[in-house]
Amino acid sequence: MAQLYYKRSEQAPYRDRIPLRIVRAEAELSPAEKLYLSAVDKGDYAGVKRSLEEAQIYFNININCTDPLGRSALLIAIENENLEVIELLLSSNVFVGDALLHAIRKEVVGAVELLLNHKKPRGDKQVPPVLLDRQFSEFTPDITPIVLAAHANNYEIIKLLVRRGVSIPRPHPVRCSCGECVSSSEVDSLRHSRSRLNIYRALASPSLVALSSEDPILTAFQLSWELKELSKVENEFKSEYEELSQQCKRFAKDLLDQTRSSKELEIILNHNDDPKAVVDPNNPYNLDRLQLAIKYHQKEFVAQPNCQQLLATLWYDGFPGWRRRHWAIKLFTCLAIGLLFPVLSLCYLIVPKSRFGVFIKKPFIKFICHTASYLTFLLLLLLASQHIVQTDLSMQGPPPTKVEWIVLPWIVGFIWAEIKQMWDRGLMQYVNDWWNLMDFVMNSLYLATISLKVVAYVKYNGSRPRDDWEMWHPTLVAEALFAIANIFSSLRLISLFTANSHLGPLQISLGRMLLDILKFLFIYCLVLLAFANGLNQLYFYYETSADDENHCKGIRCEKQNNAFSTLFETLQSLFWSIFGLINLYVTNVRPRHEFTEFVGATMFGTYNVISLVVLLNMLIAMMNNSYQLIAVRSGESSIISDHADIEWKFARTKLWMSYFEEGGTLPTPFNIIPSPKSVWYLCQWLGRRLCPCSLLSTRRKRHESLGTLGVRAQMTLRRAADNLRRNHQYQEVIKNLVKRYVAAMIREARTEEGLTEENFKELKQDISSFRYEVLGLLKKGSRKRVADRGDVANSADSRGDRSAEEEEEARGAASSLAVVDAAAAATAARAPLCLSANGVLVYDTDSAGAASARLDDRRSLSRKRVFAWRSKVKSRGCGGVAATAGAARGPHAAPSAEAAAAPSQLNGAIRTVSEEVDRLPGRGGRDDGPGGASRALPRAPAASLGAATSRPWSSRGGRIPAGGTARGDGRERTKGACAPSPLFASDAEPADAPDESYDTCEEDGAPKRPVHRDSFATTRL
Fold first, then answer.
1. How far apart are CA 217 and CA 209, in angstroms?
2. What would the pLDDT profile of 344-367 be if each residue is shown by its tens digit?
3. pLDDT by residue (tens digit) across 944-978?
4. Taking the model in full, what pTM does it have?
5. Which of 95, 92, 87, 94 is nearest to 117 (CA)?
6. DSSP state for residue 574 in the 8-state scheme
7. At what angle do helices 698-753 and 238-257 cross, to 10 degrees?
8. Which ranges constitute the DSSP H helices of 560-638?
9. Cβ(944)–Cβ(959) below 8 Å
10. Where are the domains of the chain?
11. Where would one find coiled-coil regions in this protein (predicted)?
């Protein structure tokens, strides 16, 4: 085992130990470089600047050095979101490398903008070879900034990059076989596939589509369909492509969610991107975009509530408040309209523009009339199957009965309707609908039945007993085909169940189960053929001869055992054995060959085990799974899942759209009757084709041609103007939808972000950076104070006039530092952190949602206060003020209480934020309190923050003055100076706690002077 880690030496002192060593050691950093990276990590602007200056002067620091994690100073600053340090590093021309990609991955918008505006230095620059090697990069070569930003779906960063004129390589078609694709796949197939996936993942970004596409809905449709097709080719990445396809579908649906009025919804659903499209003024609701959504199988878009509401309004046109009516009134209305469908059809044939003619064109009325016509057809089929008309059964070619003559117009009408539908929609779109295939089979069976009956009527005139007819007699075949066609006709009624909310999901479940049955039959047929071939090979010799055959009146018996004699008989026997209709004696043979019987019985038993136990149960499980995907029952009530609702609404929309289309108004058999409108159109067409042009005079033709040309030009201009107007309206609506979508997306992201560890780290970084800056100012002030001692001694006469003013200024400077304390306290107070009864900081889960919603406000407020007070402290010169105040007291006087307390307050805020980071959920245990509503956050050990100063720091966060001690009540006392308690003094303190709203301090025997602490807004832990 030790040899796996390290080559064992023969002189190893411990044979039972595995020696370990670092086999991939890296160069160690110098102390100066460690301080340099540490300053960048802590946000010490002055320290970073000093290190960069030393690197330029002494060349003792490699400004492009990396820490053990491989991060350069620029990457560390990007992770900490310290924009000032990033700007300083860029001004020093540090190596940028993949810093832009890291900033995009961290979604630091400010850093991305700085890096985009950064101009790279001209000339050669010494760059570490490790950074130039793509093998050590965290990003593959195909990951560009815009691709990575699209992966992150960051709208602001994508907008910055698009304004810079970036581009994304256009992916080749799914089954592209060009030289570039072939060569790329041969060189590195994995990189080729991953590169294609990364590009499509970027193109499927909702933010990128919303920002760069003129028609984002159409782009989402096409991209979703392309990704779905690509998932069928790239089987290795099928789940990824399907997820991207679903993401595009959700994006189109979310855009439609942003519509606020019926006008916007109509503009979206009626838009047609074809510039030559003509809008029918009589039919303003063409719903071209909805038809395109159905074509691309955008089920989420079609099932969107706004879209369904508009469709329901169009469907029940002329019946306001239909859904609110009583079910009895609805049933009576439907029955009345269904019984009157012949009258309404005749009215439409005679006067199509009349009140009744317009009434039957409404979608709901058209649906009722077509349904009533089909139910009448099924009733006629039932009468035909009952043979209510007596006929000569021995007639070989019987003439059609009266019922069959009545059924014939319906069959012709069905065939004519299917021909028109195929002509209007096209062959491919017609074939894609399974119900059309069923109609095609049904009509083909009826045509074959009619043809065979005609052949039998013409060829066979005489009578003959049926027992003497041959097996393939035309009349017998026609009767069999007619019976099968009747079954298909009755099952075709299931398609109408889609209109009902209760039967619709059941019908969809049945359709999915049929797919499972087809998959099962493929495997079952393979098993059936395998065992049928084996059993037939074993038993073909033992076939019962015709002489020895015992007639059992068509029933299988022991003496007539030909179950496995032929392949066809074997297939039948094995199939019926699934239903228990075959006995075990079929494996017996007349010569008692026990071995043959044993092998046959074993094969027959194995077949039953495989087919009944394995395959049949597998089929049941598959069908149950398909049903569960559509309908889910919970408890006593039936709850339709979201998936079931989407599937049913999509199927119902396809049914509704078939009745929204122009044409097909009359139900069968009235659709085969030529209407006056159709006759007029036919005459016009024949006149244009057959009428000779020489009958018209030349002048008349010239005038008509000029007039026609003018009319056509006007129509073309009017059509172009209408298209421009509609396109402008559509673009305005899309612009508003995109704005609302982006705003909702950003708002949802902020709400879901929650209070995380990164937020506390950002606040800690801001406070830490402010701390080092203030400490630098204080150090400068102390040096200036020593230099100004002589000047203060010379101006002792004027000290009394200025000491009060300077003391007040010093107090103001110290109070300004306390804003860090207040910002951190405000953040913690508004966050879901609270005190338990025993004084432990806990995380309140009940208020977590509210605190998450206000997270960005807290962060922006804290940062604004920090930077505002930073500027104020700079303008006041905190160090200079403290120095002047100290000089006013005398060369050997101690600094004022506020000036001395400033570092204590600042470091107390830093330490408290550090403790909050350690107490975040997931880093501590759970509270065992009642209900488990809160999680206790254990206190973190006190961190020593006095490394940058000359005096030690107390565990409460304040610096201990010389000669003083840290007290446990939150106050540090020393002679001549006092400071407020560092952080988190709650307004609701225990009743036995002393009143600490004021702190008192004693200066050189002077009376106690109160110092108000309400401005700190702190809370005690």
1. 9
2. 999 888 888 888 888 888 999 999
3. 333 333 333 333 333 334 344 433 443 333 333 33
4. 0.70
5. 87
6. H
7. 100
8. 567-577, 594-608, 616-630
9. no
10. 511-639, 754-1016
11. 227-254
